[in-house]
């Protein structure tokens, strides 16, 4: 009867093994499906700039040789499309990288106030027609979070750039940061065109644009917010939006705050 009990256990183990094997296959299948979808999306997005360049080259071939106006126009437009493709490719790389971030920078710590001051200062310099306010009254100067500095910069640039891109006549941005009980909150508020409730659910999806034609004019490709979201969640944070059409939008990022000793421990590990 001991043999039978042993058999019985073996049966149990096999069963467990089969279940976990099945789960692994499911996960792999999901991953493969996601990759396929990504490749499909990317091809779709690259098709437009390629078609535009092709159109201009055709025009050049037919008429451009004798018409300097067409020649100039087509060259300018083609260069602009090529530039757009470069940008798109860079952002697609950023997006795929953003998924593996915690592996790359597990021990990075960053002082929030320093990065905010620098990014806001730089962007205010470039966009002098905007009033960009930075309120850090509720953020102790030495507040730190677990994130690679370059990623916090990238995140802020995406949100502030959007606030500028989708502005209307009120050219103002309010950026604020504060330390709560156990979290650091950063808010980027604009007074631009706003986003409807329906659209708010979709803007974090990759390649999603509320108005394809118009955002294309503004140089958007629908990747900024999906990169931002991937970055935030890979550092255990959260990003959300609150917006009213024609009044403006408010993007809120929340990160877990680090205690002094946690920050010190991470910094020590990063140094070794
Ligand atoms: P894009 O490169 O097109 O700006 P994003 O992923 O950053 O891509 O944003 C997706 C879409 O969400 C944008 O195309 C735009 O329609 C909308 N959106 C993002 N930020 C704002 C904002 N601050 N105000 C209004 N609409 C916005």
Name the hetero compounds present.
adenosine-5'-diphosphate
The average pLDDT score comes to 89
As residue ranges, the low-confidence spans are none
User: What is the makeup of the main sheet?
Assistant: 5 strands, mixed
Order of helices and strands: HHHEHEEHEEHHHEEH
Number of DSSP helical runs: 9
Percent helix: 55-70%
User: Which of globular, elongated, flat, extended, rod-shaped describes the shape?
Assistant: globular
Strand fraction equals 15-25%
Give Rg in angstroms: 24 Å
Strand order of the largest sheet: 2-4-5-7-6
By secondary-structure content and strand pairing, the structural class works out as alpha+beta
**Total strand segments:** 7
Q: What is the terminal separation in angstroms?
A: 57 Å
Structure characterization notes:
It catalyses: ATP + protein L-histidine = ADP + protein N-phospho-L-histidine. GO terms for molecular function: kinase activity. Its EC number is 2.7.13.3. This protein has 272 residues and is α+β, with helices and mostly antiparallel strands. It has nine helices and seven strands. The strands form two sheets. It has a five-stranded mixed β-sheet with strand order 2-4-5-7-6. Helix 1 runs antiparallel to helix 2, helix 2 packs parallel to helix 8 and helix 4 runs parallel beside helix 5. The relative contact order is 0.11. The chain binds adenosine-5'-diphosphate. The site of adenosine-5'-diphosphate (ADP) has 23 residues, from helix 5 and helix 8. The site of adenosine-5'-diphosphate has 23 residues, from helix 5 and helix 8.
């Amino acid at each position: 009867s001991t043999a039978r009990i042993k058999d019985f256990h073996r049966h149990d183990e096999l069963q467990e093994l089969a279940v976990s094997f099945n789960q692994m296959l499911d996960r792999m299948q999901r991953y493969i499906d996601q990759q396929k979808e990504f490749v499909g999306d990317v091809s779709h997005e690259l098709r437009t700039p390629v078609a535009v360049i092709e159109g201009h080259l055709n025009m050049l071939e037919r008429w451009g040789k004798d018409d300097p106006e067409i020649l100039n126009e087509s060259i300018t437009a083609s260069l602009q499309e090529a530039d757009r493709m470069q940008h798109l490719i860079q952002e697609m790389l950023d997006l795929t990288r953003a998924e593996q971030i915690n592996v790359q920078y597990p021990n990075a710590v960053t002082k929030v106030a320093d990065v905010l001051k620098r990014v806001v200062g730089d962007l205010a310099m470039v966009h002098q027609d905007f009033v960009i306010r930075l309120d850090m009254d509720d953020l102790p100067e030495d507040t730190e979070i677990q994130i690679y500095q370059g990623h916090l910069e990238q995140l802020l640039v995406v949100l502030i750039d959007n606030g500028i891109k989708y502005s209307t006549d009120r050219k103002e941005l309010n950026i604020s940061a504060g330390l709560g009980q156990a979290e650091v909150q950063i808010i980027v508020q604009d007074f631009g065109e706003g986003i409807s409730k329906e659209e708010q659910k979709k803007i974090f999806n990759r390649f999603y644009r509320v108005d394809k034609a118009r955002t294309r004019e503004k140089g958007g490709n629908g990747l900024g917010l999906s990169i931002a979201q991937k970055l935030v969640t890979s550092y255990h944070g959260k990003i959300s939006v609150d917006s009213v059409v024609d009044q403006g939008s408010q993007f809120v990022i929340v990160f877990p705050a680090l205690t002094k000793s946690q920050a010190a421990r991470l910094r020590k590990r990063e140094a070794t």
